[in-house]
Specification:
This protein has four helices and five strands; from the N terminus they run βββαβαβαα.
Length: about 130
């Protein structure tokens, strides 16, 4: 099954993709935050399951951003005929930044790919939890 993770942002949405049989997520792209364009991309790529990162506050409460993400996920569910799950994504962007700095990516390049790398970290977590349940 092809699964995608979305790292939602006000301007951009990072996307990572994995095949559950292989289980290795990879950063795919960064899309403008345009619902129609995101839906079109997911359909063109044959995505069968979507995971959207929900940025809970450090103490676990849902802040304003989580409400935005929940509304976004609801719109995806209405447009797509595939499951759409939410997953706590605390610190994925910070971890993605750290890894890119360690990889000696220049700042301009980091800014271009950090959202997709954060989505890959989110998808990695989701796949690990999925495998633990099996």
């Amino acid at each position: 099954m092809r699964i995608a993770a979305l790292d939602y942002g006000a301007k951009r949405v990072g996307v990572a993709v994995a095949n559950t049989e292989i289980g290795i997520p990879f950063p795919a792209t960064v899309l403008p935050n345009d619902l129609e364009g995101i839906v079109r991309w997911l359909q063109q790529e044959g995505i069968e399951h979507v995971v959207v990162g929900a940025p809970y506050l450090m103490w676990g409460e849902a802040g304003e951003r989580v409400q935005e993400v929940e509304a976004f996920a609801k719109q995806l569910r209405q447009r797509l005929s595939v499951p759409v799950d939410l997953l706590d994504e605390r610190l994925t962007t910070a971890e993605a930044e750290r890894r890119l700095r360690e990889g000696e990516y220049r700042r301009a390049k980091r800014e271009q790919v950090v959202d997709a790398v954060a989505a890959a970290l989110l998808l990695e977590t989701y796949l690990q939890r999925l495998n633990t349940r099996r």
